[in-house]
Amino acid sequence: MAFPLIPVVTALTGGGQLVAHSSGGLIVLSSTGSYVAGTYISTAALASFLTGTAVVYTAGAATLVVSTFSLAYSTAVGAGIALVGTAGWFGTTLGATGLTGLLMRWGILPATPVWVPVVLGVAILGFIIVFGWLLARRVRRLKDKITNTPNNEEAQFTKREARLVEKMILNASKPHSRMYNWLMKILGRLKGRPTSA
Length: 197
Description:
Layout: H1 5-13, E1 17-20, E2 26-29, H2 43-84, H3 98-106, H4 115-147, H5 159-173, H6 178-187
Antiparallel strand pairs: 1-2
Helix pairs in contact: 1-5, 2-4
């Protein structure tokens, strides 16, 4: 079965939401509470969609983690000094830079110890890593569920899985940014393809 991307995206942008169908698979529920015709997504169609999308999400999560590690390395080497900043002249906020100066200007701490901005930076990097790992894990579990469903049968999805698929469909249907189109023009990859304005 083909994946009904255009009817599904049209129904979702019109106020509908993707829900689990009682006989398995997914379908768009309109804002009035009825199913939208032509928007049923079978397990096989979802598997074909996820084959490409899961690769993109996994690559995105891997990029997120790798960029987080490279950011952590650059912070530790050179940018860490700028991030932590200085307290300014004679321990005042005059001339204070970085997180230290920001916390001093806000009056949170009269004198910010060096470990406060370092812990804050590490906590932010940790949050990014955990978020990327959780997203990749959710996509992997969904793909495993679909792969382990026997042929000619439909998988029963949860509300959380339906929301994840809805987000993936809406993200896949967004037009590319101008930066992406500019980069593809430079690389010569947009020949004959429509671009967003």
